[in-house]
Amino acid sequence: MIDKFALPQLAQINLATGVISVAEQVIIRKLSDMPAYYQDQSAVRELLKTDPIIYSVYMPKQPSEVTGMYTATSVIEPGQIGNEFYMTKGHFHLDESAPEVYLTLSGEGLLVMQTHSGQSQVQDMKPGTVSYIPGDWAHRTVNAGKTPLVFFAIWPVDAGHDYDSIDDMGFNRLVLVGDDGPHIVVNPHFE
Ligand code: S6P
Ligand code: ZN
User: Scanning 26, 88, 96, 167, which has its CA 20 to 30 A from the CA of 137?
Assistant: First the structure.
């Protein structure tokens, strides 16, 4: 379908902070929005006293509400909770034919992906990496560095988001803080 209503748009992204010049909506996720996502609940309770921001999402004013693509920058703060790095909730797309592309702008981390049938894959994220996420793969990003992990995402407007599956089951791989960098391990609590 041809998008008759969209006009060309120009935006400027600050590559270090992820802030978009034409940002219309900013989503801020604090630890209190996702306490059950981390394994070490005594570390969670301690950190909830300050309730840090884990990540923010900046969405520009969209050229059209009807068709096309959404874009956003995500900024995952550096930090850890117990022996896990700060990370996003992660989600599946409701439309399994709706893929997504992530371009890392700054920082370093990992993109954890998995299918409903249990296939999993973890990709490095660093400035310039481009990840193609097929429509039926859940995706979560993890900041494994000491600076904000900033990436740009593009996905179809009708993709929809399924957070409940991850809320219920988690991901089957965890990224833990190791002496020599991130360690990917099997999640013992994955159901
Ligand atoms: C949307 C895209 C990103 C995430 C963002 C936050 O399809 O994947 O914009 O929304 O990185 O992650 P989450 O899992 O809380 O939506
Ligand atoms: Zn997505």
Answer: 26
